[in-house]
Design goal:
By secondary structure, this protein is an all-alpha fold. Helices cover about 75% and strands about 0% of the residues. The chain has a domain of about 90 residues. It has eight helices and no strands. The protein starts with 12 loop residues before the first helix and ends with a helix.
Amino acid sequence: MLLLRIDFVELGSNTLEIVILLLVTAIIAYFIGRLGRVAQSEYDELWREYEDAKRKNAGLEESKQKLLKLLESTEKEKKLAESKSYQLGIKLQDFEKQLKQIAEELERCRQKMAEAGKSKEEKTLERIKQKAADIDFDRIGTASFENRDPLQKIKGIGPFIEQKLYALGIYTFRQIANFSPEDEEMVNKAIEFFPGRIKRDGWKKQAAGLVSQE
C-alpha cells in the first residue's frame, strides 16, 4: 500500500479532497483487482468442470453407441436363432414323419415275416377258426379247450382233423353227438374235409356211444 504523508495544515481544502479521492480510488482499484482474480479463478474452475463434463459426455456417447451396436447385433442373432429354430422344427416334423413311415414299414415287414414263418397247417387252422361263426352252437352246445375230449377216438378223425375241430370250437363227443344233418354238412365244409365224409364215417353215432360210456 502506498503510504502518504500529508501535512494537513499546509494543504488547502481542495487539495485534501483530491488526496482523499485518490486514496478511495486506490482502494477501489485494489478490491476490483481482487474481485477480478477471484472471478478468473472461478471461471477457470468452471471451464475445467465443463471440459471434464464434455469428456465424460463423449465417453457416455461412445458407450451408448457401443450398446446400440450390441443390441442391434443381439437382435440379429435373436432373429437368426428364431429362423434356425423354425427350420429345425420343420426338419424335426419331417424326421418324425419319416420315422413313422419307417415304423409302419417295419410292422408290415414283421407281419409278412410272421406270415411267411407260419406253417401250412397253422395257416389252415387260422382259416378254419374264422368259420366258427357259421356253426350253430346253440344246437350242438359249447365247450372249451380245457374240457376237450380226445376226438381221435372217433374213427375217421386223425391228429390234424382233431386240431381243425378244436380250431372250429368243437371240443367234445357230446357236441358231435348233437350234430344234425345240416351241422354235419357245415362242419364237413368248414374243416375242408371230403364232401359227406363225416356222415359216411358215422361220427355222430360213434360220438353218442362214447358219451354213453362216460
